Input
Amino acid sequence: MAPAGLPHALCVELARAAVADGPEHWSKEAALARAEHHARTLLTPVVNATGVLLHTNLGRAPLAIEHPAQAINVEFDLTTGERGSRQAAVGGVLASLCGAQAAMVVNNNAAAVMLVLAALARDRQVLVSRGESVEIGGGFRVPEVMEQSGAHLVDVGTTNRTRLADYSKALGRKGADVALVLKVHPSNYRVEGFVEDTPVEQLATLPVPVVADIGSGLIDANCPWLGGPPPAWLAGEPAARQTLEAGAALVTFSGDKLLGGPQSGIIAGDAALVAACARHPLARALRPGAHVLLALQQLALAYLDRSAARTVPFWQMVATSSDELRRRARAVVAEAGVGEVVDSEAIPGAGSAPGTVIPSVAVRLRGDHLALLRTMRPPVVARTRDGATLLDLRSVHPSDDPHLVAALRACAS
Ligand SMILES: *Cc1c(COP(=O)(O)O)cnc(C)c1O
Output
């Protein structure tokens, strides 16, 4: 390893680039700065002090994926000794968790929606409310996903109001060949005022299967793993179990939003429809690796034995009391000798429970120190407000508090 811990081969490339850039880039200091700069373009653990618990740019749900360099029975049935299904184990526990007949896992929720449409609606029509034909950041646009899947989008209703009768009308149109109704949770987008959408209960009375893309992957609106009432900010967020109970044939959701797991997408519901998705050739291209499946299985088991609030990092962040955050913030400020403890507002993030906030506590430091904070090791990512830098404690793991102390000292000096 050479400067900034970079391998020799990369340093040679950087040196060549410096030569090409001209003599003012040839000093030893300039070369080291270039190497440091390049090292900071690599992936590395960071301290998320933004208060956005599921920060898409910071990998969404934090999760340790630990597995020794050992084989896993990912497609091997230990009971028969024969080849098994990659989806069987994790699909089974996820199905139990959601109260579904069956479930399967793909690489992310965009892939889940794409696979459902390709497997169940290719060359046929899919009804979507105009109010739900949305873009969800990072290039997930309902009409474009639909087009790529080979299904034909049929818009129903209006941007602000769509009723059951709008869907019925589209179903009854001459030559209609409707495979599915797709209900999409608008996530980070909201229409307010004179609005009406059609709940799954009503859609389920239509003669075609309803697929609900609920997005965030809240498993159960009652959050039984918290051992108390669900937090207020979750009200209104669709949950897998209740959406299936309301009559959806399938739900799709992300594994790394409110579920708190690794990047993945889950399809759960009717066994025949899940099997049709699993049989489609795209399923092979969208399948996750063994480490992701193993992590998801562990996560699902933690939910099932109701230990998720203690063992899933996302729910740990949610379940921490503001008093505990305040205690930590005071300790950080006392140790650093700089900064003040203020109330703040964290948000769930990744389009989950849009518009809601989670009471939180932050350390406030006058001035904008974001650039300096990013140069720390590990880098600290924070936010500014009213000309001050805020380090929000709710999104920071307690074991990272010493890094906040070091960061505050660096900012003050
Ligand atoms: C987040 C989201 C997606 C995309 O999920 P990824 O896991 O990021 O691919 C799709 N639909 C909805 C409703 C979402 O909220």
